[in-house]
Amino acid sequence: MTKGIVLASGSIHRRELLKNAGIDAVVDPSSLDERALEAPLADSGLTPEDIAGVLAEAKAADVSVRHRGALVIGADQTLSLGDEMFHKPADMEGARRTLLKLSGRTHQLASAVVIVEDGVVTWRHVAIARITLRPLSPVFIGRYLAKVGDAALTSVGAYQIEKQGIQLMERIEGDFFTIIGLPILPLVAELRARGTIDG
User: Fold this and answer.
1) 188 contacts 113 by C-beta, under 8 angstroms
2) Which CATH number is 96's domain given?
3) CB–CB of 154/89 below 8 Å?
4) Rounded CA gap, 119 and 63, in Å?
5) I need a surface site. Which of 37, 111, 119, 188 has the fewest CB within 10 A?
């Protein structure tokens, strides 16, 4: 019998990626406080990739208790610049500060995806993308934020690569799906190998 698939994320982008790939998933976001989970990890010596994995696992395990026998997909993403990790900006001033810090530099996105079954992690994967923003003047940043509005507050880097955020970028290393926040190619391969989706 094919197991049901549950996405433990409220992300519209992750839901759309699964839907567009023909994967029928129940959406049941975790209610865990990510920032509270992440706080003790900040000084633990874990890498941003490790932290993304821990958060993805915690969210999937949280939702798994409500869906016995299902494959629960958890995902999380971290953005780091050197030793500094970033979070979604709280307001437009925070978005402005983020873009000023990232301007002309290369930052890293670590996107983790896991599968949890009945509270046990049965598969995990972390993908890395590196994005270099072109040098951005404060005046341009102001105009950009005025155009995109509150959408800048929905992304940790204050940009959406699939929208006007592409104008900020000089170079991209890594795939589009990793940047969006769900490394879907390895996930689809794993679901196919399990016989969960048609292979």
Assistant:
1) no
2) 3.90.950.10
3) no
4) 9
5) 119
Cα–Cα distance for residue pair 157/20, rounded to 1 Å: 24
Q: How many residues does the chain have?
A: 199
Question: Which residue in 65, 63, 66 sits closest to 74, CA to CA?
Answer: 63
157: which 2 tokens? Answer: 């880097």
How confident is the model over 9-54, as pLDDT tens digits? 988 889 999 999 999 999 999 988 877 877 777 778 889 999 999 9
Q: For tokens 């900020």, what's the residue? A: 168
Predicted TM-score (pTM) above 0.85 = yes
**Cβ atoms within 10 Å, residue 123:** 17
Question: Is 199 contained in some domain?
Answer: no
Q: Where are the beta strands (DSSP E) in the chain?
A: 5-7, 26-27, 71-81, 84-86, 106-117, 120-133, 169-173
Report the half-sphere exposure of 136 (CA within 13 A, side-chain side): 25
In a domain, residue 163? The reply is yes
Would you state the pLDDT for residue 41?
Answer: 77
How far is CA 195 from its chain centroid? 26
pLDDT digits (tens, 9 = 90+) for 126-143: 999 999 999 999 999 999
Which are the catalytic amino acids? 76
Q: Report CA dihedral (105, 110, 111, 117) to the nearest 10 degrees.
A: -170
Q: Provide DSSP, 33-81.
A: -HHHHHGGGTTTT--HHHHHHHHHHHHHHHHHTTSTTSEEEEEEEEEEE
